[in-house]
């Protein structure tokens, strides 16, 4: 089974799929090694890791495609990618999906914001008309094919309210979305309403479990019980890595030694193992050069 078919199968299975966020090829290796079914490449993490910039729509589609290729080269599981708003019109969206598919993505989520887009948990977002988003969904489906997983995201909760967001999402499901993602519900009442009103459609629902956002923090079992079965953890690994790097730098500057925190750092052997050094050395021995 291809990775694209695997991802679609996960969505249809009815069981919970955790989309653990990676921000570079090394962290993607960690995600796969930890036993997750897919690697998630979110826009916030990608912009931070690749550009050192906030998630404000400044990455180009080709930059993201290059990011996908590097991750695809070191992982074997499906890759789910944040496609922002398709990077433009329906025509741009068709090219974006074709580029992401060629780079190794097995699916995307795509939102109904205008350019310049913003992270879903930031203020000041603006929406495209529903008909424009439907055109993008149809263009994405044609470009990606039936096996390519297409999640339609709406940011309407923050702008027009939960009822309007649910209405938009239902229209996106009719247009051919494989799953629905209503970002940034700000209360348990909103979360419960999404599961209650959209559950009867029989389309998988996506929950953004980002620990830094506006949505209530819930455990996996609680999220499942509310009717969601695709759960994103977009930047949690990156936040942990940031804290760890800061600890090393601050400790060395203050104490002049890292001996007090060695047990909180990975070993060089761990890194060598994760990078597959032994496999590369064996390959080098098979094909010696003078």
Descriptive report:
The chain has 13 helices and eight strands. The longest helix is centred in the last third of the chain and has 20 residues, at 236-255. Helix 6 links the parallel strand 4 (107-111) and strand 5 (149-154). 49% of the residues lie in helices and 12% in strands. The protein has an eight-stranded parallel barrel, surrounded by nine helices. The protein starts with a helix and ends with a helix. With 290 residues, it is of the alpha/beta class. The protein has helices at 3-12, 25-33, 43-51, 61-72, 90-103, 130-144, 157-160, 162-174, 188-198, 220-225, 236-255, 268-275, 277-286, and strands spanning 17-21, 39-41, 79-82, 107-111, 149-154, 179-182, 205-208, 230-233. The radius of gyration is 20 Å and the shape is globular. This is Oxaloacetate decarboxylase. InterPro entries: ICL/PEPM (IPR039556), Isocitrate_lyase_ph_CS (IPR018523), Pyrv/PenolPyrv_kinase-like_dom (IPR015813), Pyrv_kinase-like_dom_sf (IPR040442). It holds the Pfam family PEP_mutase.
């Amino acid at each position: 089974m291809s990775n694209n078919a695997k991802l679609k199968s996960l969505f249809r299975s009815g069981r919970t799929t955790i989309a653990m966020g990676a921000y570079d090829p090394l962290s993607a290796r960690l995600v796969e090694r930890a036993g997750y079914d897919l690697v998630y490449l979110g826009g916030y993490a990608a912009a931070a890791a690749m550009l050192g910039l906030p998630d404000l729509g400044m990455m180009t589609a080709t930059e993201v495609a290059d990011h996908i290729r590097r991750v695809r080269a070191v992982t074997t599981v499906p890759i789910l990618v944040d496609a922002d708003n398709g990077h433009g019109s329906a025509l741009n969206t068709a090219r974006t999906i074709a580029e992401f598919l060629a780079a190794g993505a097995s699916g995307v989520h795509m939102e109904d914001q205008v350019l310049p887009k913003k992270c879903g948990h930031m203020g000041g977002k603006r929406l495209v008309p529903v008909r424009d988003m439907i055109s993008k969904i149809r263009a994405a489906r044609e470009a990606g094919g039936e096996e390519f997983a297409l999640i339609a995201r709406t940011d309407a909760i923050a702008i027009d309210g939960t009822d309007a967001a649910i209405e938009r999402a239902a229209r996106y499901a009719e247009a051919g979305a494989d799953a629905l993602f209503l970002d940034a519900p700000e209360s348990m009442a909103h979360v419960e309403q999404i599961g209650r009103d959209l559950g009867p459609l029989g389309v998988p629902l996506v929950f953004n479990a980002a620990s830094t956002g506006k949505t209530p923090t819930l455990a996996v079992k609680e999220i499942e019980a509310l009717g969601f079965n695709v759960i994103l953890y977009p930047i949690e690994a990156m936040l942990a890595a940031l804290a760890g790097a800061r600890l090393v730098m601050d400790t060395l500057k203050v104490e002049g030694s890292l001996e007090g925190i060695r047990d909180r750092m990975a070993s060089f052997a761990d890194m060598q193992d994760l990078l597959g050094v032994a496999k590369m050395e064996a390959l080098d021995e098979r094909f010696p050069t003078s």
